[in-house]
Amino acid sequence: MAKIDHTNRSFSQMLSRNRKSPVQTTLAVLIVLASLVVVPDSYGQAADVVDSIEKALNKGDVSKLLSHGSDRIAVAVFGEAREYSQAQAEFVLKDFFKTHQVRAFSFDESSTTERGMFVQGRLLHKSSDRALRVFVRLRMRQSKWELREIIIRR
Question: In angstroms, rounded to a whole number, what is the distance separating the alpha carbons of residues 77 and 149?
Fold first, then answer.
């Protein structure tokens, strides 16, 4: 059986590779989540960061959201992820929240490893009754969890 290497690919690359069907995409995400191990030492700090990000997404507060960001952040809004500086990511996300005012947001799944965390949730917005899926990837860098990637999909 081939070994799966998740370390050099972004979650958007892994998800976009499995666009053949929703079942295959769901299965791929579940396999990734099942392969991750919870690390108790960093989990408390990660939970605080995730809680802060969840509150920021619930308010559409891009400044608060990006306060957890790394220098470069991969952002995908209804498409392929692109690497942005903090300032560029702020522009892209503010533009998104102008047209998709948040009614409610909550994370519903998460998984943590020693160096990374993946969380996903549902965003309800005022423009539609259809929920959007939000995927967030954090990484541990210099003993601090930082936002590395955010993907928003229909």
Answer: 11
Task: Please check whether the domain covering 38-153 is classified as CATH 3.10.450.50.
Answer: yes
Mean pLDDT, rounded, for 80-95: 97
Backbone angles phi, psi at 133, to 5 degrees: -95, 135
pLDDT at 12: 60
Are 74 and 42 in contact by the 8 Å Cβ rule? The answer is no
With b for 16 or more beta-carbon neighbours within 10 A and e for fewer, the 56-68 pattern comes to bbeebbbeebbeb
Q: How many CB atoms lie within 10 A of CB 135?
A: 20
Is the Cβ–Cβ distance between 131 and 123 less than 8 Å?
yes
Burial class (CB in 10 A: 0-12, 13-18, 19+), 153: middle
Q: What is the pTM of this model?
A: 0.72
Q: Are 133 and 120 in contact (CB under 8 A)?
A: yes
pLDDT attached to residue 115: 84
